[in-house]
Amino acid sequence: MGDEMPPNPRRATLATVAASAGVSVATVSKVLNGRSDVAPTTRSLVESLLQQHDYVARRSEATGGATIELEFDADINAYSTEIIQGAVDTGAEVGVGVVVSIRRGADRTSAWARGLVSVGRRAVIAVTAEMTARQLTALARANLPLVVVDPLNLPRTDVTSVGSTNFAGGLSATQHLLSLGHRRIAYLGGPATAACNQARMHGYRAAMEAAGAPVTPGYVREGHFLYNDGVELGAELLDLPQVPTAIFAGSDETALGIIEAARARGLRIPEDLSIVGFDDTQVARMGSPPLTTVRQPLREMGSVAMRTALRLAAGEKIDSHHVELATELVVRGSTAPAPAAAG
User: Fold this and answer.
1) pLDDT per position as a tens digit, 50-66
2) Got the DSSP string for 268-307?
3) In a shared domain, residues 64 and 147
């Protein structure tokens, strides 16, 4: 039942905690500031009540420094830097700081939420994060607005999120390969439970079905949108008895890994194998050959997330809890007509 509690409508004050403890407001303040002139038993009682009341000290209100927490649950990569750039640029325009951090899901606790507020955060932007009901409740109790970018899951329909038209992107990527005469097309995506991956995969399947091209058993694989997934799982695809002539990868990093797996097997890109990525990060343009990919407007997504977080922090209402920005196929050198011998 604790996970389903609504946001705390009234923030506890120093006076609330002091009254509960039977001490003065000054004593509670001393405990918060780590002063030593408080009896151990009193300190223990006050600390317990501070936690019980979910008290959060807003240091930013004293210093005037508003900041937004931009959190990632994995190491920073080419995808991440595009999101960061969009958020930072927007923050600079409006005079709001952005603090970038890496925090795994298990690290998001009530203490985490209270700590963010105590150091001046006004909202949290979580990128490709999997948020639990307990974590959402911790943020609500701390009165910290949340915006999720490219969410892996949406445990509640009222969670504000920013994404892209993943289904349309998967559809256009596969239709491009089909238009080049490919029929043996595989999909190597991300986690099975990730909403963005599901949408891209369904776009792929919809295009294949509309073209009457059956999906060969073993042609759909799940990874984590990483380069090593492309190397390892791409190798599995290329070692199948019926080798695909084209692969749609769920990220640019995965696509570059597939290219490496293909080269290790003496396959030429794109003469023997066509590859389409997803994201259009800098690595797509620097690939050899440059990567055909589905462009996500990543910087714009970071910017929209930032502006939305600031509106929520200001208590404004937003028109929609979920915003999807348009994707676009960008054709470069990693795709070509299917080999003449392919059936």
Assistant:
1) 777 766 554 443 334 57
2) -TTTT-EEEEEE--HHHHHSSSPPEEEEP-HHHHHHHHHH
3) yes
